[in-house]
Amino acid sequence: MNLSVSYKSKTSKKIVKRSFNYDLIYIIVTIILSLLYYITYNRIEKALILLCLMLAIYSTYNIYLKKSLFNIKIENMFENELKKRKIEELEEIKRKDNINRIIIIDDKDNEIGLVEIKKNNYKIGKKNNKNDVDIDLKDVKESELISKEHAIISKIKDTWYLIDLNSTNGTTLIKTNNRKIILKNEKEHIQIGDIIKLNNKISILIN
């Protein structure tokens, strides 16, 4: 819970309660003083002027007080909305970072491979006697465009990255907002819904 918002909320409630009590006390005291002035000096006009002046001063103070209370209320609403949005943003980021599967799709949108996430590193490339990869693409169309060790999907400190391993043709990452990033011996943060393309025939969907 936001301590600043909680404190302001409690403060505003206390001010409202005290304000009512002070209003009543001030009005009674003002009337008594005006009556005492009238009794002492027997001048009704000045007693009424004193009464009006004191009530006007207190009314001005009350206007300022209510304005302050309104400002506190607006600040509380604003801070609560910011807090709510921040929580929603963090939850959305956490959801998108929770990658469970890597899906391999051909140029006809058919699923030709599926990898369940069980470790922190998945190397993409073409497997042979000297090269071991987790996602083997040696038998796909246009495999000649894919390097033996093309890229790696790696989890670093709870965040998933796509890292190009200095591949010959680079690695293309298409984000969920359709932003295209071409990686060449670089890394980029990946989330659920991102698509990796190594050639024109194969797509790797992060899910």
UniProtKB/TrEMBL annotation:
InterPro entries according to UniProt: FHA_dom (IPR000253), SMAD_FHA_dom_sf (IPR008984)
Keyword Transmembrane helix assigned: yes
Domain FHA per the UniProt entry, residue ranges: 122-173
SMART domains cross-referenced by the UniProt entry: FHA
Keywords from the named record: Membrane, Transmembrane, Transmembrane helix
Annotated transmembrane regions: 20-41, 47-65
Highest taxon, organism lineage: Bacteria
Keyword Transmembrane helix: yes
A Pfam match: FHA
Descriptive protein name: FHA domain-containing protein
Protein source organism: Oceanivirga miroungae
